[in-house]
Amino acid sequence: MSSKVVTIKEIAKRLNISISTVSRALHDHPSIGLRTKKNVQQLAKELHYEPNQTAIFFQQRKTFTIGVILPQLAESFFSTAISGIEDYASLHNYTVLLAQSYDDETKERQIIETMKHHRVDGILISISKNTSQYDHFESLKKINIPVVFFDRIPKMNNIHYVACNMQTGTSEAVDFLLKKGHRAVGMINGPETLLCSQDRVTGYIHAMRKNRLKYDPSLIISTDLTPESVEDAIDQLLSSRRKTSAIVTFNDYVALDAMQYLKKLKLKINKDIQVVSYANFPLTQFLENAPLASVEQYPYLQGQKAMETLLELIAKKKDDEEGNNTAYFKIILDSKLVISKKN
Amino acid sequence: MSSKVVTIKEIAKRLNISISTVSRALHDHPSIGLRTKKNVQQLAKELHYEPNQTAIFFQQRKTFTIGVILPQLAESFFSTAISGIEDYASLHNYTVLLAQSYDDETKERQIIETMKHHRVDGILISISKNTSQYDHFESLKKINIPVVFFDRIPKMNNIHYVACNMQTGTSEAVDFLLKKGHRAVGMINGPETLLCSQDRVTGYIHAMRKNRLKYDPSLIISTDLTPESVEDAIDQLLSSRRKTSAIVTFNDYVALDAMQYLKKLKLKINKDIQVVSYANFPLTQFLENAPLASVEQYPYLQGQKAMETLLELIAKKKDDEEGNNTAYFKIILDSKLVISKKN
DNA sequence: CTAAAATACGCAACCGTTTGCATTTTAATT
DNA sequence: AATTAAAATGCAAACGGTTGCGTATTTTAG
Question: What mean pLDDT is predicted for residues A277-288?
Answer without folding.
Answer: 76
